[in-house]
Amino acid sequence: MIRHLSFGEAAARMAAASVVFALFVLAGAIGPAEAQVNPRDVPIVTQPQQRFDGGQDIQPIFEGWTRNDDGSYLFHFGYLNRNYREQPAIPIGPENHFSPGAEDRGQPTYFYPRTQRYQFTVSMPADTGPDPEDGIVWNVTANGSEQQAYGWLQPEWEIDENTITSNNRTGFGRPVEQLFENAAPEVSVSASATAVGVGEAVTLTAVLSDDELPEQMPPRRPRTRLPALIPPDDLPKAPDNIRWYRKPSPPRNGLALLWVVYRGPADADFEPSGYQRAYAEEEGDTEVDGLVTEATSSGTPATHIDGDGWTSATFEATVTFDEPGEYTLRGWASDAMFLTPGDVTITVR
C-alpha cells in the first residue's frame, strides 16, 4: 500500500534533506582548519543570546561634547568592552592611541567588561572647526580587531548635565532644578606609598567636599509583593569559579567613593571593594502574606572616617597588586548625581 505524504510532511522532509546536503557540501569543500569561525563574523541576528567571556574587541565611544565658559570644548569618551569577563590591558601606543596629534589624551589602558560611560574628557581649543576632519579619533585594537571613535563638533552631539546623569543612571527621582544647580563633588586622593613590591598593601585616602545638593531622597519603600519564585533556604548555589564583573552603582544619598584601575598591566585588589559610602540607608524587614521579606538596603554601611557625609567625607581603603608595573588608580567621587575622578600613580616592583 502506498502512503501519500501530506504537504506538511513533505515540506519537513525537504527542509531536513536540504540541511544534510548543505552540511555535506561544507564538509567536502572546507577543511577542518578553514571551518573555524570568528565569533565577530557571525551576524548578531543569529546569536542574540550569546555572551562571550573573552576574545571580543573593545569599541571606543564618543559620548558627545560640551562647551566651556572660555569658549573651548570638552570631548567626552567611554567604551564598550564586548567581553563579560576578560579585562584587557592595552598600553598607549599602536593599539591604543589618538590621532591626529598626541597619542596620549588621558584614555584608560585597563578596560573593565561591558559599557563604561564618560570615562575621560579631552580638552579642545575654542578655534576647533565644525567639520569631521577637525576632530580627533580614538583607536583601540583588542584581540586583533581595531575599532575607532570619531569625535567632532557635530551639533546633534552637544550634551548637558541631564544627558550625562541620564546615561549614567544617576539623579533619578530628583527635581530637574537640582540637576542644573548642583555642583560636582571635589576629590583629592593620595597613597601611603608610591613605590611598593608585589603583595604589599598600600593605604589609599580620598578627601571629598561638596555643596549641599542634591537633597536627600526618602528611603526606598519596602517590598509589598513577594517574588514569583522563592527558592528553598537549603538550596545550594550554582558554582561559579569566575564571576562576571558587575559595574558598581553609586548610592542614592550622600558622598561615596569607588576605586578602580584606570591604567596598568592587571587588576588590583581593593579592600573594601565597590562603593564606599558616607550614608547608610536601611529598611527593616517587611511581612507580606505571612512571610518576611528581606530588608531593603541601598548598600554597605557607612565607612567614612571623617566628615558629615554630605558636604565632606574622608575615606580610606587598601590596595594590593599581584603583578609588577606602573598603575594609575582612579577614585570616582559621587554625590549621588555627579561623578568626579581623582588619580594616583603607584609603581609596583
Q: Quick recap of the structure?
A:
This protein is mostly beta strands. Helices cover 11% and strands 33% of the residues.
Gyration radius, in Å:
26 Å
Helix content: 10-25%
Q: Say how many strands there are.
A: 17
Total helical elements: 3
End-to-end Cα distance, whole Å, is 85 Å
What global shape is seen? globular
* N to C succession of SSEs: HEEEEEEHHEEEEEEEEEEE
Task: Give the DSSP E fraction (strand runs of 2 or more residues).
Answer: 25-35%
Largest sheet: 5 strands, mixed
SSE diagram, text form:
Blueprint (H helix, E strand, L loop, with lengths): L6 H23 L28 E10 L5 E9 L14 E4 L14 E11 L11 E7 L2 E7 L9 H8 L7 H6 L4 E6 L3 E2 L5 E8 L46 E8 L4 E4 L4 E2 L8 E3 L2 E3 L18 E10 L3 E10 L4 E10 L1
Parallel strand pairs: 8-17
Antiparallel strand pairs: 1-2, 2-4, 3-5, 5-6, 7-9, 9-15, 10-12, 10-16, 11-15, 13-14, 16-17
Question: Can you describe this structure?
Answer:
This protein is mainly beta. Among the domains are: 58-159; 174-215 and 246-285 and 292-348, Immunoglobulin-like (Sandwich). It contains 3 helices and 17 strands. It has helices at 7-29, 161-168, 176-181, and strands at residues 58-67, 73-81, 96-99, 114-124, 136-142, 145-151, 186-191, 195-196, 202-209, 256-263, 268-271, 276-277, 286-288, 291-293, 312-321, 325-334, 339-348. The protein has a 5-stranded mixed beta sheet, with no helix packed on it. The longest helix has 23 residues, at 7-29. The radius of gyration is 26 Å and the shape is globular. Residues 18-35 have low confidence and may be disordered.
